[in-house]
Design a protein that fits this description.
Layout (H helix, E strand, L loop, with lengths): L1 H22 L2 H4 L4 H20 L5 E6 L5 E5 L15 H7 L4 H4 L15 H6 L1 E10 L2 E8 L2 E2 L4 E5 L4 E8 L11 H14 L4 E6 L4 E5 L5 H8 L10 E7 L2 E9 L6 E6 L2 E2 L5 H20 L11 H4 L3 E8 L5 E2 L5 E2 L2 H21 L1 H29 L25 E6 L1 H10 L5 E6 L11 H6 L1 H10 L16 E5 L4 H17 L1 H5 L3 E4 L4 E5 L2 E5 L2 H10 L5 E4 L8 H9 L6 E3 L2 H15 L3 H13 L1 H4 L2
Parallel strand pairs: 1-8, 12-14, 17-18, 17-19, 19-20
Antiparallel strand pairs: 1-2, 2-7, 3-4, 3-7, 4-5, 4-6, 8-9, 10-11, 11-14, 12-13, 15-16, 20-24, 21-22, 21-23
Helix pairs in contact: 3-7, 9-11, 13-19, 16-20
The structure holds 3-[3-(1H-pyrrolo[2,3-b]pyridin-5-yl)phenyl]propanoic acid.
3-[3-(1H-pyrrolo[2,3-b]pyridin-5-yl)phenyl]propanoic acid binds next to helix 3.
Length: 629
């Protein structure tokens, strides 16, 4: 009575388990598309491979049947059919209880996280029908199931001299939209498994088309690499390294070719790790270090040279296979090994073995080093060419120019940069500014000295370089307007010919190389007053002749008039009040048309045609305000 109750309770649990698998198959096999469908076969095959790795099976056979079913057979010990304490056979437990694997099958390696290892019960739950046939201790035992539920007990079907397990199943069309197996897909995976598990003979037979192939590789992953490289020019025979300590096992097969690409395939517990992980990074770290050590030690690599990580894998084909008891699979696709202990394990075992190999095989060492060195040299040459084109380093410095008096505020939207002509005006504006939001960069008048130089030379000028560094945007290909450090850039020059030159040069620079700043309205011209009108203690500023006349009138004549020839004539307070204070100043926003016009003027001023230049300067000197940008 007691027994019967327990049996019933367990039966309910089994049904609930199978129901969960059928309700959410993707949780167990990833998806119900082609991939998930083929996963059923792989799941059954994995069990056979485990039995082979345990040393009991030598052959695995997969047959694709005309009725749409698959049959997976091994010649191992056979799944135990003996009665379990609760009255059920071990076979029934393995085929119907979710994750019963651990109880009966002593798996050396778990494949949690990956989708393998979910157990034969999942295959059963997702099959229209399944049949398990066990040849064990001279008897043939058979049990059948429908959608995971046993339809027969474990029946003895006769005697046998054979030994092993056959699982036959037909995928359930209620679960899978497509239930037709693809021969190519399955044979690829079976061949891979045969490479990864040396000595296991895996046969695939497609009875729908009468095709049969046998995969058997005594050489394991060494033969895998030979296969991958068969159409390439190989620089040496395949190298093979292996180590097993405790419950971690790692093996690496590698061979350099004259190709420029790398091909590193990595596996954890026979599962492909598309995104690599700690096993691969341990290998790469060790490889690069040993190549450098050996190269330096043997004076192949010169002082100051270094083979980089990318250099050491150029032309390399490698297969890395590790067996780890508790693998952690990471990332979006779960295709990356996360176990940190594996990195050091692979690095240290491989480094030691590879180092010894190089020392004992100087010819191969020479060929490998030559390949890595040529990769390094090509990389350096490419980088130099890139640097030259992109002027890398010139504008990428994060160091701000020493002459810049920066503001405290860090939000570019609140920050202003005053580019000020001359050191004396620069000094006054540094004193007079609002330090919180206003930065000042003084420019030397010397900027004019490079006016006849081609633009690339102009860019090499310290003054222009300081402007670009202060802006923070980078230059040329690296220009990124989002990195702009100030949303108001105010050009503040004297109202004379020199000032106009500097402004024109800056606008041309902005127009040609920082157009986005003009388009976004970030560039301004300061409008310093031309006159100061004073009567007693009353002061007025006039920005043009009309204002001067009005101011003179308002003060009742008899006024003292000062004409500003340069910003340097104003003290810090005056400069603040008239030109910099956001409350009282006037700024002129520079438009793209202004930039275009400046560009035209630039050509006019810089060109070789003397006559138009003279005419321009004469006109400019007479009508300063009309040409004021
Ligand atoms: C548990 C114990 C034993 C064998 C197996 C599981 C086994 C499972 C599968 C699945 C497919 N092929 C298999 N082959 C074996 C060994 C029990 C014993 O005889 O000691």
């Amino acid at each position: 009575m007691q027994d019967e109750n327990e049996y019933n309770a367990e039966s309910i649990q089994v049904l609930e388990g199978l129901e969960a698998v059928r309700k959410r198959p993707a949780m167990y096999i990833g998806d119900t598309d082609r991939k998930g469908l083929h996963h059923l076969v792989y799941e059954a095959v994995d069990n056979c491979i485990d039995e082979a790795l345990a040393g009991f099976a030598k052959n695995v056979e997969v047959v694709l049947k005309p009725d749409g079913s698959a049959s997976i057979r091994d010649d191992g010990r056979g799944i135990p059919t003996e009665k379990h304490s609760m009255g059920k056979s071990a076979l029934e437990v393995v085929t119907t209880v979710l994750h019963a694997g651990g109880k009966f099958e002593k798996k050396a390696y778990k494949v949690s996280g990956g989708l393998h290892g979910v157990g034969i019960s999942v295959v059963n739950a997702l099959s229209e029908w399944m049949e398990a046939e066990v040849h064990r201790k001279g008897q043939i035992y058979v049990q059948r199931y429908a959608r995971g539920v046993p339809t027969t007990g474990v029946e003895v079907k006769g005697e046998t001299s054979y030994r092993g397990t056959i699982i036959r199943f037909k995928p359930d069309a209620q679960i899978f939209p497509v239930i037709e197996f693809d021969y190519e897909t399955i044979r690829e995976r079976l061949r891979e498994l045969a490479f990864l598990n040396r000595g296991v003979r895996i046969t695939i037979r497609d009875e729908r088309s009468n095709v049969e192939e046998v995969f058997f590789f005594e050489g394991g992953i060494t033969q895998f690499v030979e296969h991958l490289n068969k159409a390439r020019n190989r620089l040496h025979p395949v190298l093979y390294f292996q180590k097993e300590v405790g419950n971690i096992e790692a093996e690496i097969a590698m061979q350099y070719t004259d190709s420029y690409s790398e091909m590193i395939y990595s596996f954890v517990n026979d599962i492909k790790t598309i995104d690599g992980g700690t096993h691969v990074s341990g290998f790469r770290t060790g490889l690069t270090r040993i190549l450098n050590d050996y190269g330096m030690g043997n004076k192949i690599i010169k002082e100051g040279q270094k083979v980089g990580g990318e250099d050491s894998v150029e032309g390399l084909t490698a297969v890395i296979s590790v067996k780890v008891p508790e693998p952690q699979f990471e990332g979006q696709t779960k295709g990356k090994l996360g176990n940190s202990e594996v990195k050091g394990y692979v690095d240290s075992f491989f480094s030691a073995a590879f180092k010894q190999f190089l020392e004992e095989n100087p010819q191969v060492a020479k060929a490998i080093l030559a390949k890595a060195m040529s990769a390094m040299e090509a990389r350096e040459a490419a980088q130099k060419a890139k640097d030259l084109i992109r002027r890398k380093g010139i504008f990428e410095s994060s160091v701000l120019p020493g002459k810049l008096a920066d503001c405290i505020e860090e939000d570019p939207a609140k920050c202003e940069l005053f580019i000020v002509e001359g050191d004396s005006a620069g000094g006054s504006s540094k004193q007079g500014r609002n330090r919180q939001t206003q930065a000042v960069l003084p420019l030397k008048g010397k900027i004019l000295n490079v006016e006849k130089a081609p633009l690339n030379k102009i860019l090499m000028s310290n003054e222009i370089r300081n402007v670009v560094l202060a802006l923070g945007t980078g230059f040329g290909q690296d220009f990124d307007p989002k990195k702009l450090r100030y949303h108001k850039i105010v050009i503040m020059t004297d109202a004379d010919v020199d000032g106009a030159h500097i402004r024109t040069l800056l606008l041309t620079l902005f127009y040609r190389h920082f157009k986005a700043l003009l388009e976004n309205g970030f560039i301004y011209a300061a409008m310093p007053p031309l006159f100061r009108v004073k009567k007693g203690k009353i002061e007025r500023y006039a920005y043009d002749e009309t204002e001067l006349a009005r101011a003179t009138g308002e003060l009742g004549g008899d006024v003292e008039i000062q004409r500003y020839k340069g910003l340097g004539e104003m003290n810090a307070t005056q400069l603040w009040e008239t030109t910099m204070n956001p409350e009282s100043r006037t700024l002129k926003k520079i438009t793209i048309e202004d930039g275009m016009r400046a560009d035209g003027m630039f050509s006019l001023l810089m060109g070789d045609a003397v006559e138009p230049r003279r005419a321009f300067i004469e006109q400019y000197a007479r009508e300063v305000k009309n040409l004021d940008i």
